[in-house]
Write a structure and sequence with these properties.
- By secondary structure, the chain is an alpha/beta fold.
- The chain folds into 3 domains: 100 residues, Rossmann fold, CATH 3.40.50; 98 residues, NadA-like (Rossmann fold, 3-Layer(aba) Sandwich), CATH 3.40.50.10800; 86 residues, NadA-like (Rossmann fold, 3-Layer(aba) Sandwich), CATH 3.40.50.
- The protein is 44% helix and 15% strand.
- The protein is built from 16 helices and 12 strands.
- The chain has a 4-stranded parallel sheet, sandwiched between helices.
- Helix 1 packs parallel to helix 15, helix 3 runs parallel beside helix 4 and helix 13 runs parallel beside helix 14.
- The protein is globular, with a radius of gyration of 19 Å.
- The model has no long low-confidence stretch (mean pLDDT 96).
- The chain binds 1,3-dihydroxyacetonephosphate (13P) and iron/sulfur cluster (SF4).
- The site of iron/sulfur cluster has 12 residues, from helix 5 and helix 10.
Length: 311
Amino acid sequence: TKEVGNIEDAFLKLKKEKNAVLMAHFYQENKIQDIADFVGDSLALAQFAAKTDAEIIMVAGVHFMGESAKILSPEKTVIVPDLNAGCSLADSCPPDVFAKFIKQYPDHKVITYVNTSAEIKALSDIVVTSTNAKAIVDSFPKDEKLIFGPDKNLGNYINSITGREMLLWDGACHVHEKFSLEKILEIKDSNKDAEILAHPECKKQLLMVADHIGSTAALLNYSSTSSSQKFIVATESGIIHQMKLKSPNKTFIPAPPNDSTCACNDCEFMRLNTMDKLYNALKFGWPTIEVDEAVRVKAVKPIERMLDISN
Ligand code: 13P
Ligand code: SF4
């Protein structure tokens, strides 16, 4: 038998033995992206989880991504490397408070971003990601009253490009909110040929100066098709790995945050996942993601509605 040389090889061997697949979000560390069966944005990961034949789905991302996979494929075992990999945006929307909020507006349809708990999805009419949010909002009749949550920045942005006045929940992602507009403009000033790429979870002031706004998949696609050779990237820096793979000769500058403690904006939840944790989680079949069946049957409908529109 072949000697196992390193953790990546050991993981790949185990993955085969256990009939597992590994899907990873673009914000994972490079090594994890490189050994994953599939790397994608939130929408692509949900689409992949809904279709895979594997018995075990390993999710290298954050908790809500594991939950979406389990909601869509309840018969599969869904394993995450670290249950503490949460999401500040999902946490900004507690289900009991959101339930009270939407109860005040019974004539409104409820649209929620995928970065939420299963309980929030169960309260929603439809789920969206950054990739399909505009198309899904556009699919509602113009006079339909809409609530959008939890991300106020994405909600504001979608309102601005659709001409809607959706009622917004006051939530945000701490990673995308802390980019420094001032520092970004300084970098732009000394790199006039650079284009600013921004995720719609960023604040409005930053989106106003961005050359291109989109989900991680949309920004990646734009960076490889644009004739520009230099980009200032205002989203989690993990995406730069795929950008460089697609465009090895282009320059990617991670947008700096307000605080000076780190050079770029990493999501500490996403970065809790490591190769060692992935290996151990698969070996011991733990921790798994479990979703209460009563919640799951309600939560699956708005996700499937989204997938139907997006396919
Ligand atoms: P997308 O990859 O869908 O753009 O989402 C970004 C994000 O913050 C995921 O947590
Ligand atoms: Fe959540 Fe923000 Fe991290 Fe994405 S980057 S997982 S929205 S905390």
